[in-house]
Amino acid sequence: MEGLVTHQIIQNLVKCVNFATIKHKDQRRKDAEKTPYINHPIGVAYILTEEANISDLAVIQAALLHDTVEDTNTTFEEIKNHFGKEVHDIVVEVTDDKSLSWRQRRDLQIKNAGSSSYKAKLVKLADKLYNLRDLQRTTPVGWTKEHVDDYFQFSKQVTDGMKGTNVILEEKLNKLYKLWNLV
Ligand SMILES: Nc1nc2c(ncn2[C@@H]2O[C@H](COP(=O)(O)OP(=O)(O)O)[C@@H](OP(=O)(O)OP(=O)(O)O)[C@H]2O)c(=O)[nH]1
Ligand SMILES: [Mn+2]
């Protein structure tokens, strides 16, 4: 695998990993071990390439960047300047408006699930799959059983609205919902 095009693709991916790593550098996951937050976006991209067999560059870039605007000082403008309009548009679609209440943000995700683009749906499905697996692994500090159950129910409402997007991701999510007695 040689050549200019291959080099550009690899460069684009490493640029995203580097950007996200710098942006999330002071952030940790909510688990007791305080796992570096960057494990999550990289893990979401990994689910898409390794499990869902996705090779669309913009989707993988958006997965790597998907929480930078929501959770750090990154602006949409920066994403557009560094990574272009297509990646920017996907990141916009998967970013919650933090000026809204927690309840409003959740309601909007459920409401907008079906109408989002195919590429945004892929990122969102992998995001939820990662977070649900994380909840199976360990409970975030301060989360009650109700909070965990609530996140499972909320996720199901979002991903049910995305049916027909990707068989592999949907089957894996459904297995988790069954384990959690949601179906
Ligand atoms: N399961 C799990 N989640 C953690 C952990 N640390 C951070 N998170 C993040 O917490 C978010 C889910 O928690 P909530 O209580 O529902 O949301 P909040 O962050 O808005 O308060 C997810 O955000 P998100 O990725 O933006 O997804 P979503 O809010 O769009 O579902 C997830 O990535 C952890 O250790 N385990
Ligand atoms: Mn996320």
Number of self-contained structural domains: 1
Q: In one word, what is the shape? A: globular
CATH class: Mainly Alpha
Distance between the termini: 45 Å
Quantity of strands, as a count? 0
CATH topology: Hypothetical protein af1432
GO molecular function, one term: guanosine-3',5'-bis(diphosphate) 3'-diphosphatase activity
EC number: 3.1.7.2
Pfam families: HD_4
Keywords: Hydrolase, Manganese, Metal-binding
Features:
9 helices, globular, binds manganese (II) ion, MESH1, hydrolase, 183 residues, binds guanosine-5',3'-tetraphosphate, metal ion binding, Hypothetical protein af1432
Q: Could you explain the architecture of this structure?
A:
With 183 residues, this protein is mostly helical. Helix content is 68%, strand content 0%. It contains nine helices and no strands. The mean pLDDT is 97. Guanosine-5',3'-tetraphosphate is lined by residues 29-31, 40, 67, 70, 102, 127, 131, 134-135, 140, 151. This is Guanosine-3',5'-bis(diphosphate) 3'-pyrophosphohydrolase MESH1. Pfam families: HD_4.
